[in-house]
Amino acid sequence: GSTAQAMGIRAGDRLLALNGTPVATTADVVGWLANSRSGTEVAVRLRRDGEELELRGIAQERARDPGDAAY
What we know:
alpha+beta
C-alpha cells in the first residue's frame, strides 16, 4: 500500500500542507514527495468534509511506474 493509504487519507480529501509546507496543486505534492526519504515522519494537514485534520505517518518507498521518467 501507499503512504496515503497507511495514513488514512481518503479520496476527496484536500491536502493543505505536508510537514508544514503548503501544497496547492498535485505538482506541489509530487515534488514534495520526490524530495522525501522513505522512513521520514510525515504530518499531513487536510480538509475532509469541511473539517481540517492532521494525520501523521511514515513515508514509504514509492513503487516505480515503468512509464515514469525516473524509472
